[in-house]
Structure formats: C-alpha cells, structure tokens
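Design a sequence for this backbone.
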C-alpha cells in the first residue's frame, strides 16, 4: 500500500546560541583544566556550525547539574517542542489532533515515563483511543527510523492517520566534569530541535506529492563503542568516536548498496540523497563514499550551519529544506546512529494535482 506525506514541520527552542559565544563559554570552562582544549578549540571554527538552539539559556551551562536538574529541563523543553511541532504539522496537513489514530514519538536525550505523548495529551487534544508508540535509543538515526516505523504502521492500516514526532534536547547532556574529547565535540556540534510528520494511505491533494517507501536498516557487529550514551550519577555522557568519518568512508557505500537493493532501487536511480549531517567531516565522507559531486549535499551543510546537529530530527530539517526548493524525483533518506546502525527510507517526490 502506498503511504504519503501529508504534513511536515520543524521547530526550535527559544534560546539561540551563537558559535562564538559557545566557544567563549567553553574556553572559560575547559581551558584551565583540560590540556588538549587549545588544540580542540579550533573545531569550533571548522565544524560548519555557526549557531544552534537550546531549551535552556547559555548561562545554564556555567554551573553543575545532576539528573534531577537535567530531567526537569528535558521535560519542560521537550514537551514545549512536541506541542509546537505537532501543531505546525497538523496545520500543514489540514488535520486536527482528534483525527490522529497513532502517534510515534522518537527521543533519546531524556527519559519520560509517562512518555511525552501522554504528558501533552490534554494540551494537544489527542483522542483517548490513540495508539502510542514511543521509541528510545536510536540517537541520530531516529529521524529516518522513526519515519520508517510510521510508514510501516500507515501501510498496515491505510485509512489510519499516523503522526511522527521527533524531539531531542542534546544540549542538556553537556558535561564539563568528565574532561573527554567527546564532550568538547558535543559542545561544538549539538543543538536542540523537533520535527513532526503526518502520514496516511490517502493521496493528498497537494502541489507536491511525497510517497514513502519501506525503510531498511544495517547494523554492524562489535561497534557499540562508536556512538551512544554513558550513564552515571550525573546524567548522560556522550559517546562519540573519532573514527566515524573514516567508518563512513569504508562502510557506508556497501551498506547503501544493500539498502538500495532491498528497496528495489539502484544508485543510478537516486536523484537526491537526503542525509543526516552529523558533522562537516561526516557530510564530506558521505559524498566521498557515495561518489557524489563535492558539495552535492548543500542542504545538509546549510542545516548544520544554522542549527547544529540536533540528533534525530536533523534529517527532517534537511528533507523540509529539500522539498521547499521544489525538488522532484527519487530520493533516499539516510542516517547513522548508535548500534552502530545505518537507517534508510526511499521516498519519491512527484507532481500533485493542485
């Protein structure tokens, strides 16, 4: 059964953090106690990130925080982002919250039980019999995998209206106590944001029709230490291995070939790859691995520049930007995340009837 995209939204938290200001504050925190900081600080200027957004102001990061403080900030920020993203996506689709049959919620940067969809139930206006599918632990792959899960649910029930909500507050995992390189890179790259998408089996009456195919994943064994969280008494600590760009260069092409084969496509048929921009080096490595022209992934670089790496929702920011240009043809969304895993979703963008 065909599944169509009816609405897509992206949203940001209220606090804009300019990269120069983040570098200045990071220098205050790290320079006197982390010998490698002077060398690593150059990354602030070469990362491709000029600004990002946070659920908390810059001053929040200048004092120590534990689980309670981080969790309180996550719940407040994530719920606000959830509501904003849902409202905008429903408006884009012309749906009401009461029409939604299923909500898939993806988030890996905080813990909420009851889950976020339940915590905003009254404010959003979901029905009491809505199916809730919360998904945790996918990290940067969560946007593509979440879209794949929503597509599969919609395909199983073509008349159902399925809503995907992807919310991350990466900034709250900032740690000045561990003095690890991964924490510096996280401070350089990560921001907060959310996205939402409306899916159903009914073809929309729109100028641009996006048809979603069935997703595919590749999981590499013995790669648990490449990306993820360390969990301790203070909070979540990022695991972010330096080998990621080289891993992409050596492994991503074969994984992508497998995903294309599994979805009945070939590299020659893809008009546009829609990629999660994990960082400037990762974007360049993807172009190299897939033999794309240099700077072919300009939308990815633009999103990274303006919003940083927001983890799971970032690829949906890229998709929205690509669609806004009027692009048409066969595309493949892809992202890498903890596991270590690659997630793929084919989508075809054609002319509509409006």
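Sequence:
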């Amino acid at each position: 059964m065909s599944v169509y995209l009816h609405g897509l939204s992206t949203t940001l938290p209220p606090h804009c953090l300019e990269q120069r200001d983040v570098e200045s504050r990071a220098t205050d925190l790290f320079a006197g106690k982390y010998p490698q900081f002077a060398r690593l600080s150059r990354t602030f200027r070469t990362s491709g990130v000029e600004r990002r957004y946070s659920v908390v102001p810059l001053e929040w990061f200048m004092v120590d925080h534990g689980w309670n403080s981080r969790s309180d900030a996550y719940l407040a920020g994530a719920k606000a982002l959830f509501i904003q993203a849902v409202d905008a996506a429903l408006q884009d689709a012309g749906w009401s919250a009461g029409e939604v049959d299923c909500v898939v919620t993806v988030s890996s940067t905080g813990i909420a039980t009851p889950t976020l969809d339940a915590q905003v139930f009254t404010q959003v206006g979901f029905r009491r019999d809505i199916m809730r599918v919360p998904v945790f632990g996918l990290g940067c792959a969560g946007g593509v995998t979440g879209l794949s899960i929503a597509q599969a649910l919609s395909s199983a029930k073509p008349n159902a209206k399925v809503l995907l909500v992807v919310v991350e507050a990466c900034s709250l995992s900032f740690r000045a106590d561990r003095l690890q390189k991964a924490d510096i890179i996280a401070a350089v790259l990560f921001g907060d944001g959310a996205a939402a998408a409306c899916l159903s089996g009914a073809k929309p009456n729109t100028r641009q029709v996006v048809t979603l195919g069935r997703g595919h994943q590749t999981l590499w064994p013995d790669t648990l230490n490449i990306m993820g969280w360390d969990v301790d008494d203070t909070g979540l600590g990022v695991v972010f291995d330096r080998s990621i760009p080289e891993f992409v260069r050596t492994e991503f092409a074969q994984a992508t070939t497998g995903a294309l084969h599994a979805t009945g496509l070939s590299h020659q048929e893809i008009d546009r790859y829609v990629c999660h921009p994990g960082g400037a080096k990762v974007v360049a490595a993807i172009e190299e691995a897939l033999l794309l022209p240099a700077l072919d992934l300009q939308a990815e670089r633009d999103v990274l520049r303006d919003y940083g790496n927001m983890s799971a929702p970032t690829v949906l920011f890229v998709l929205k930007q690509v669609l806004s240009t009027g692009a048409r043809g066969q595309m493949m969304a892809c992202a890498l995340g903890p596991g270590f895993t690659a997630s793929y979703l084919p989508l075809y963008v054609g002319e509509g009837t409006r």
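The mean pLDDT is 92.
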